[in-house]
Write a structure and sequence with these properties.
Elements (H helix, E strand, L loop, with lengths): L7 E5 L4 E2 L1 H12 L3 E6 L4 E6 L2 E7 L2 E2 L10 E4 L4 H6 L3 H12 L4 E4 L3 H7 L6 E2 L6 H6 L3 E2 L4 E4 L2 E4 L5 H14 L8
Parallel strand pairs: 1-3, 1-7, 2-4, 3-6, 7-8, 8-12, 9-10
Antiparallel strand pairs: 4-5, 11-12
């Protein structure tokens, strides 16, 4: 497995993120040597969701108002229905995502996480996957949607749901190790 020593990875969430879609990638990234930071519109803590109930509380490392894409090598967007629905309409979220995208840095979104990418206006012409209920939303945004465990399009990593976490985590690490994707720059 590739080493990610000295790599900084932002994980952007609001209350109601699917907990395992944060914890599993975070554990894999940390094990590979990356330093992960939870970024949130919440100032101090954010609460996960575990399938049908509220999950654990997690400390926010960087409030969204202080987040800067220049400080990170990659961005991870966990899913859950509530989380991206809260994030997607916030201009600060859209701006942060666009900046990562314009800089060609790897972005990884799982399950409902791609909703925020749609609202940031960065998915047109991309090949992606997601939770099946987002298919129409992504296709309407100009995405070639495929039903696959993990899809990579120039550093944009997407997966369907928690069942795909092993493949998702491996691809995130691979893409971060590769670095900036010049072909995706605006």
């Amino acid at each position: 497995m590739a080493r990610l020593d000295n790599k900084q990875v932002a994980i952007l969430v609001a209350d109601g993120f699917e907990q395992v879609e944060l914890t599993s990638p975070r554990e894999a990234l940390n094990a590979a040597g990356a330093d992960t930071h939870i970024i949130s519109p919440n100032d101090s803590e954010v609460t996960g969701w575990t399938e049908t109930n509220w999950g654990d509380k997690f400390e926010v490392d960087v409030p969204l108002s202080e987040a800067n894409a220049d400080n990170y090598d990659a961005l991870v967007l966990p899913g859950g229905v509530m989380n991206p629905d809260k994030l997607r309409t916030q201009e600060a979220v859209q701006k942060l995502i666009r900046t990562f995208f314009e800089q060609g840095k790897p972005i990884a979104a799982i399950c409902h996480g791609p909703w925020s990418l749609i609202d940031a206006g960065v998915v047109k012409g991309k090949r992606m996957t997601s939770y099946h209920t987002l298919r129409t939303d992504l296709e309407n945004a100009g995405v070639e949607w495929v039903d696959a465990e993990v899809v990579v399009d120039q550093g944009l990593v997407t997966s369907r749901d928690p069942n795909d976490l092993e493949a998702f985590n491996a691809k995130i690490i691979e893409e971060i190790a590769e670095g900036v994707h010049a072909g995706r720059r605006a």
